[in-house]
Design brief:
single chain, rod-shaped, mainly alpha
């Protein structure tokens, strides 16, 4: 039972990480635009 829960947690973590990475990729162009405007 505990092993199954651990596997679920690892899966949740990897999904969270994937979402965070995707969010970073979406933010990159905005950050570049903000930087170019600041310059």
């Amino acid at each position: 039972m505990t092993g199954f829960v651990e596997i679920q947690d690892v899966h949740k973590l990897s999904t969270l990480r994937r979402l965070l990475i995707r969010e970073d990729e979406l933010k990159k162009p905005f950050n570049q635009i903000a930087i170019s405007l600041a310059l």
